[in-house]
Amino acid sequence: MNLQHSIHHRKSNDRFCLVLLLFVVLQACAPLKPVEFRSVTDLKVKDAFTSPTVTANLNFFNPNSFGCTVKKLEVDVLLSKTELTQLSFTKQRIPSGKEFILPLSASVSYSQLLKLIPVGVASFQSGKDIPVDLTGSVTLKKFLFSKTFPLQVHEKLNLKDIQIK
After folding, report:
1. Taking the chain, what is the end-to-end CA distance rounded to the nearest angstrom?
2. Quick one: which of 101, 116, 102 has its CA closest to 52?
3. Alpha carbons 70 and 89: distance in angstroms, whole number
4. Which of 14-18, 29-33, 64-68, 111-115 has the lowest mean pLDDT?
5. Which residue from 34, 81, 91, 116 could staple onto 149, CB 3.0 to 4.6 Å apart?
6. CB 37 within 8 A of CB 58
7. If DSSP codes are grouped into helix, strand and coil, which group holds residue 161?
């Protein structure tokens, strides 16, 4: 009787493992959807007079029904069509069906900051928002599969939303 019970138990385990393996394979084959950009928050210029650094949070939403990894994000940042800097980010696990934040940081040259002074003055005087363009790509990874998606973002920031320290 014990032998019969052991054989039945082994068959149940084999079926369970087969179903689990099938589930994992099907999840791995599900197509990756691109993450959806939501907003730029906490834009700061630190050490503006010594070694300027721009930091910001990019807020996204993962529309996929499974978690995945942001393998790489590379973007050019333009303020009022003037290139400010290039940002890159590597490796962050993101949850399924939820919003997430990618904190970014990059050094900025003084020459780039000087080009932005007229933009800042014009925005301050007119009260108009500053157009911000992010152009680049984001690479997502799920198991062994990776896919790169283009990233094109056009936002407007108010000068008061940019913190200078």
Report:
1. 78
2. 116
3. 8
4. 14-18
5. 34
6. yes
7. helix
The residues pairing with 107 across neighbouring beta strands, listed in sequence order, are: 53
- The predicted pLDDT at position 157 comes to 81
CA distance 43 to 121: 18
120 with 112: CB under 8 angstroms?
no
Which amino acid is residue 37, in one-letter code?
A: F
- pLDDT of amino acid 49: 76
Distance CA 84, CA 50 (A): 17
Q: How many residues does the chain have?
A: 165
Which sign, positive or negative, has the C-alpha torsion 124, 133, 45, 53? negative
Q: What would the pLDDT profile of 73-112 be if each residue is shown by its tens digit?
A: 999 988 888 888 888 888 999 999 999 999 988 888 878 7
pTM, rounded to two decimals? 0.75
Q: Which of 159, 153, 156, 162 is nearest to 76 (CA)?
A: 153
CB 18 within 8 A of CB 136: no
Whole-angstrom distance, CA of residue 44 vs CA of residue 23? 44
- DSSP bridge pairs for 151: 136
Segment 28-47 shows an average pLDDT of: 85
Q: Give φ, ψ of 4 to 5 degrees.
A: -65, -45
